[in-house]
Amino acid sequence: MKTVTLTLNPALDKSTAVDRITPEQKLRCSSLQLDAGGGGINVSKGIRKLGGASTAVFPAGGHNGRRLQELLTNAGISTSTFELAGETRENFSVTESATNLQYRFTLPGVEMRTEEAEHCLQLIRELQPDLLVASGSLPPGLPVTYYEQVAAFAKQIGARFVLDTSGPALQAAADEGLYLLKPNLAELSALAGVDKLEMNQVDDAALDIIHQGKCELVVVSLGPQGALLVTRDGFEHIPAPTVRKKSTVGAGDSMVAGMIWALAQGKSPREMAQIGVACGTAATMNPGTELFDPEDVWRLKTWIDTYGERYRITDFD
Ligand SMILES: Nc1ncnc2c1ncn2[C@@H]1O[C@H](COP(=O)(O)OP(=O)(O)OP(=O)(O)O)[C@@H](O)[C@H]1O
Ligand SMILES: [Mg+2]
Predict the structure, then answer these.
(1) Contacts of 103 (CB under 8 A, 6+ apart)
(2) How much distance in Å is there from the Cα of 60 to the middle of ligand 1?
(3) Among 104, 184, 200, 284, who pairs with 93 as Cys (CB 3.0-4.6 Å)?
């Protein structure tokens, strides 16, 4: 199955470390590390780690845009980009070595007009994907409903659309209808139109979304509690193994990467959600923005196969 990821607001991630962060002083940092960042791009990286393939579609602006492309090409990931006027944004993160805390500064993306975003859709059309994954925020300048247009476009080209984003951008796209949603609890609450869902309301809220025709599958991610897979036929809790947590940054993108890889392999929704949980949890074992080590993924997947039943929550009430 041909997989394409779409990142409308990519970033060049720059990270470094310093012993202590203190004001007014020169902070002598270790050498700079450059990484390609942004939701869809991270998903492409995760798919690659699992041995799968995808093409990352994104707007690339100026010098930073070229660096992004280079970084991905060097990592063995195909890209299809279009030149954006202006520079692709940079994100900057500093790890304070004394405490191991990571300070993450994200900058707004470069303004993008709807006509420019249409170039990305054109690139996707040429790639003829079976699976289209969009992840991450929308850049400034695009209407908050833009993912709704992407959802409609995906239908038109016959691709299954998977979306991982938050807020009104997510709500609008869900109204158009898509294949798979992976909301966390806060995002599911917003989709259900309430402030905060309680655990015992999660299954019904997700099932409602399916019954309203907004999507076929929902995987609600529950942080350390794993995930809830919800289909038309019912729900199943997938517990997350307990691990030594270093950083949860990238857990969501890793989870999506695992699920997309599984879908592309023709796995069942259940396997898909289990592999997603294994990837998300494996990501928490790595420091900073690093995704996951595939060896950890398959070890955790074996744990889920063996002990999942025992730790499964069957009754959320
Ligand atoms: N503390 C944790 N312990 C074990 N697994 C975790 C933990 N946090 C996250 N995970 C794993 O990662 C998956 C996704 O995490 P989470 O529910 O926090 O998603 P998210 O809120 O979308 O994350 P992100 O902030 O990266 O977008 C979970 O389903 C779980 O498998
Ligand atoms: Mg998320």
Answers:
(1) 21, 93, 94, 95, 96
(2) 29
(3) 104
**pLDDT class for 316, splitting at 50, 70, 90?**
low
Q: What is the largest CA-CA distance in the chain?
A: 60
Query: What is the number of other CB atoms lying within 10 angstroms of the CB of residue 205?
Result: 21
Helix (H, G, I), strand (E, B) or coil at 216: strand
Confidence tier at 317 by pLDDT (50, 70, 90): low
227-236 mean pLDDT: 94
- Cα distance between residue 258 and residue 252, in whole Å: 10
Closest-lying ligand to the alpha carbon of 248? 1
Ligand index nearest the alpha carbon of residue 186: 1
Q: Is 252 in the pocket of ligand 1 (CB under 6 A)?
A: yes
CA distance 249 to 160: 27
**How do residues 304-314 score in pLDDT, each as one tens digit?**
999 888 888 87
| pTM, two decimal places | 0.96
Q: Residue 285's closest CA among 240, 258, 248, 252?
A: 248
Please state, in angstroms and rounded to a whole number, the distance separating the CA atoms of residues 277 and 225.
Answer: 10
**What's the pLDDT at 6?**
98
Q: What single-letter amino acid sits at 225?
A: Q
Q: How far apart are CA 139 and CA 58, in angstroms?
A: 12
Gap between the Cα atoms of 283 and 159, Å rounded:
28
Tally of CA atoms within 13 A in the half-sphere of 308 that contains its CB: 23
Which pair of tokens denotes residue 286? 């790595």
Ligand 2 centroid vs 221 CA: distance in angstroms?
8
Residue 211: Cβ within 10 Å count: 10
Mean pLDDT (whole number) for 201-220:
95
Gyration radius of the chain over CA positions: 19
pLDDT score for 219:
98
> Which residues carry out catalysis?
253
Distance 29 CA to ligand 1 centre (A): 29
